[in-house]
Amino acid sequence: MEKAIKLKVRKELDSHQQLNIIKLKGSLISKGYTEIIHIMDQDEEYHINYFDTPVESKSEVLAFINDFIVKENLTDSISTENDVKH
Predict the structure, then answer these.
(1) In contact, 72 and 16? CB cutoff 8 Å
(2) CB-based contact 23:71 (threshold 8 Å)
(3) Does the pLDDT at position 32 exceed 70?
(4) Phi, psi (degrees; rounded to nearest 5) at 50
(5) Per-residue pLDDT tens for 37-83?
(6) CA-wise closest residue to 61 among 22, 31, 20
(7) Long-range contacts of range 31-40, CB-CB < 8 Å, 24 or more positions apart?
(8) What is the DSSP letter of 32?
């Protein structure tokens, strides 16, 4: 069974933040956590990025994302959200 992971991404980002978020998404794909990341608008401030990952990988994926956010100082730019149904 697949589980969806949702990321809340601020729309207004500087070029360094944008580059790091692209690196995060690329890493999620290259590590095999997902094959595609979907993007939808939430409101005027945020996009929602979501992707499916195997349920047995969910904790590992969330830990990877949270470590990346802290390491790259993106706590004001991106955050993880609860599971999303699509």
Answers:
(1) no
(2) no
(3) yes
(4) -140, 155
(5) 999 999 999 999 999 999 899 999 999 999 999 999 999 999 998 54
(6) 31
(7) 31/64, 33/57, 33/60, 33/61, 33/64, 38/86
(8) T
